[in-house]
Amino acid sequence: MNIVTYEEVQGIKFPVNPIVKYMSVYIYYIDGLLIDTGPRLGKRKLAKIYKDWDINQVAITHYHSDHTGMVKWLERHKKLDIFCSEETIHIVNHRWELSTFEKLFSTRFNGRVYEDMLRTPNFSFIPIKTPGHTDDHTALYEPNKGWLFTGDLYVSPFPKVCLKEESISDYISSLDQLTKLDVSTIFCAHEGIISNGKKMLKKKHMYLEKMRNEVVRLHGLGFDDRAIVKKLLPDKVKLEVLTFGSFSRLHFVRSCYRDLEK
Ligand SMILES: [Zn+2]
Fold this sequence. Notes:
Layout: E1 2-6, E2 9-15, E3 24-30, E4 33-35, H1 43-52, E5 57-59, H2 65-68, H3 71-77, E6 81-84, H4 86-93, H5 100-105, E7 112-113, E8 118-119, E9 124-129, E10 138-142, E11 147-151, H6 168-178, E12 185-188, E13 192-194, H7 197-220, H8 225-232, H9 238-242, H10 249-258
The structure holds zinc ion (ZN).
Zinc ion binds at residues 62, 64, 133, 152.
């Protein structure tokens, strides 16, 4: 674990799973506001930091347990408001519908639905609904600074795998909105701090549109999903192996045409 600083923002870099350290999660803290809370498996180390920080507001980007894992601890030990989307509230209150992994690790909490603006003494954040990675996903934009806290929406400009629940079409619509903003810096929950924010968002937007068009074309020609994977994404991706196929190229391909057929 280490702490990175960028302008007025502090970020904690923490392994998603402290046992299998293949991926990190970044939790950001600015002016009394904590954006996401980190995994429950990191309780001992994260609680130590949270005790020292004067956190009075928490913003949740989406329900996944590496983002909400410590929310219960914060609720119990600090006097603060927890903001999230109404979709997040619905999901955490219907946890039995989630995958086994999320059922085990996600938590219920008393969240308040985001208002138009989330203010701290020195900054203002606009919550923006950005489905794609999950239906409840919210990004936070600080227009004066050009900061965009993207949760799990960005992660890579050229993704080759996705979860079953992810929607490539929703990603494209969300990126459509975000690329219109004046973004200087992306604060990504897994890749850290990324400069050239607007350019990188555009890259991902263009890549996903291109991939979706290509998948839809091949699907229309009668290629099956595996044949499309072989053609467009022939190389095995490390994340597929590490997550036992939860993230996969097949999910990616299916998602490209699934939403268009609804
Ligand atoms: Zn996530």
